[in-house]
Each structure stands twice: as C-alpha cells, then as structure tokens.
C-alpha cells in the first residue's frame, strides 16, 4: 500500500476513535435523561403569590374603603354586637363573623378601659387588651378602624402586623388602624393588640377584608 494511503487510514482511525470518546463522555454526563445533542434549558419557577407577602395595593384598597359606622344620639342605648359561642377555637365567646373575630373573655358585650399606668405615664388614653382571631380559612389581609358613635372621640391602636404593641419606654406609636393578616398554612391566627379610648361611650370597629366589610359595636367603660 502506498505511504499516503497508510497515512490517510491512520488519520481516519484516530479521528473515529476521538469522535467515539466524545460521544461516550457526552452520554455519561446526561444523568437527567436528556437526549444526546439536546440543548439544556434553564427554567425559572415563580412561586404563586400568597397573602403572606401582602402587596401594598391591598392595604391601599382597604384604606380607601369609607367608614360606614352608625351614629347614635347622646344617651341612646348602645346596640352592642352580640357574642357568639364556640366559633373560635379555645375561646368560649367571640364577637363578629368570619374572617375576623374580636375575643374579650372578661365581658362579652362590654370592654373596660383602664389607665395606661406605668406603660404610658401621663397619657390621656385609656387602654384595654383585645385579641383578634383570623379564621383559618382566610389567608388575606384585614384592616381595622374605629371611633365613638355616640360622640366625637377617636379610637387608637397598638399591635397588629408589623406594628409595635408596647415597649419599655412607653413611646410606642398610637395608630389609627390595625393591620391583620391570615395564615396561608390554613391555621387560625391570633393577634394581641391594645385598643385605646379617651372617654366612655358606644364605640364601633369596622373590619375591612378582601372577603367582606363588617361592623362590631361595643360598650366601652373607663375605670
């Protein structure tokens, strides 16, 4: 065989061996079942938005809802919202309806507000501890506001989602509203808050959520 043919066969054989080696390496790296020669694609999976990360627009839309609280003539009987039994786990009584309930174990239709004492020395606000329960079936947001309906006094709040309940210095901000958020895991969510008033009277809370708008009326006394 001429020398040039021997060189051509030798070069072809080496080329074939090299291609076989590359093919074997490529197949051994395809552990995910990808076909040889297929192009790998990077896929980004976006989590489905939930109420845990509440968009700012949700709060804005709730705050834009007008207050539709009733008004009473001074001295008129306060139309308190009746309590209901066994609608909230671990509590005998609760006021309101789903998705947000007010829980006040001391008096089911009356809330006593006391001097803030050492927590806020010299404050003109009276204070009462109030629990709010968000139904396990609701994972959205809720906004709570309120005022006196047989007078002109406002209502203040501490606590809620991202809001300070109290601090040792007694300088926690007194806010005009409470922010609450349901639990996306399908569990009841409890919020310990402080509600503040300056005078006895008939007061109403308005609870706005993405599901409904509700009014709860209470008789507030100061001690």
How many DSSP helices? Answer: 2
Spans with pLDDT under 50 lasting ≥5 residues? 1-53
Main sheet overview: 11 strands, mixed
Cα gyration radius (Å): 33 Å
Strand content: 25-35%
Under CATH, the topology of the domain at 67-222 can be stated as: Immunoglobulin-like
Instruction: Assign the CATH architecture of the domain at 67-222.
Output: Sandwich
Average pLDDT figure: 77
H/E element sequence: HHEEEEEEEEEEE
Structural class comes to: alpha+beta
How helical, in percent, are the residues? 10-25%
Q: Give the termini separation.
A: 118 Å
Q: Choose one word for the global shape.
A: globular
**Name of the level-1 CATH class of the domain at 67-222:** Mainly Beta
Q: How many individual β-strands?
A: 11
Give your account of this protein's structure.
This protein is of the alpha+beta class and 223 residues long. It has helices at residues 3-28, 56-63; strands at 83-88, 91-97, 100-103, 110-115, 126-134, 141-148, 156-158, 178-181, 189-197, 201-209, 213-222. Strand 10 and strand 11 form a beta hairpin. The radius of gyration is 33 Å and the shape is globular. The relative contact order is 0.19. The model is unreliable at 1-53 (pLDDT under 50).
Topology:
Layout: H1 3-28, H2 56-63, E1 83-88, E2 91-97, E3 100-103, E4 110-115, E5 126-134, E6 141-148, E7 156-158, E8 178-181, E9 189-197, E10 201-209, E11 213-222
Parallel strand pairs: 4-11
Antiparallel strand pairs: 1-2, 2-3, 3-5, 4-5, 5-9, 6-8, 6-10, 7-9, 10-11
Describe the structure concisely for a colleague.
The chain has helices at 3-28, 56-63; strands at 83-88, 91-97, 100-103, 110-115, 126-134, 141-148, 156-158, 178-181, 189-197, 201-209, 213-222. The protein has 223 residues and is of the alpha+beta class. The protein has a domain at 67-222: Sandwich (Immunoglobulin-like).
């Amino acid at each position: 065989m001429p020398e040039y043919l021997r060189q051509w066969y030798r070069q072809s054989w080496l080329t074939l061996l090299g291609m076989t080696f590359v093919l074997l390496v490529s197949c051994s790296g395809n552990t995910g079942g990808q076909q040889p020669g297929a192009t790998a694609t990077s896929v980004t999976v976006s989590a489905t938005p939930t109420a845990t990360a509440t968009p700012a627009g949700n709060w804005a839309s709730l705050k834009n809802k007008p207050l539709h609280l009733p008004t009473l003539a001074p001295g008129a009987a306060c139309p308190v919202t009746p309590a209901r039994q066994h609608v909230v786990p671990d509590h005998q009584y609760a006021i309101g309806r789903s998705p947000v309930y007010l829980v006040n174990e001391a008096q089911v239709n009356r809330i006593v507000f006391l001097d803030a004492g050492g927590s806020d020395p010299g404050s003109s606000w009276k204070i009462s501890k109030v629990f709010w329960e968000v139904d396990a079936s609701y994972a959205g947001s809720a906004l709570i506001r309120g005022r006196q309906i047989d007078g002109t006094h406002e209502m203040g709040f501490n606590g809620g989602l991202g809001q300070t309940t109290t601090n040792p210095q007694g300088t926690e901000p007194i806010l005009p509203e409470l922010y609450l958020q349901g639990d996306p895991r399908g569990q009841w969510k409890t919020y310990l808050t402080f509600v503040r008033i300056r005078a006895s009277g008939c007061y109403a809370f308005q609870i706005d959520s993405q599901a409904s708008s509700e009014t709860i009326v209470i008789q507030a006394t100061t001690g």
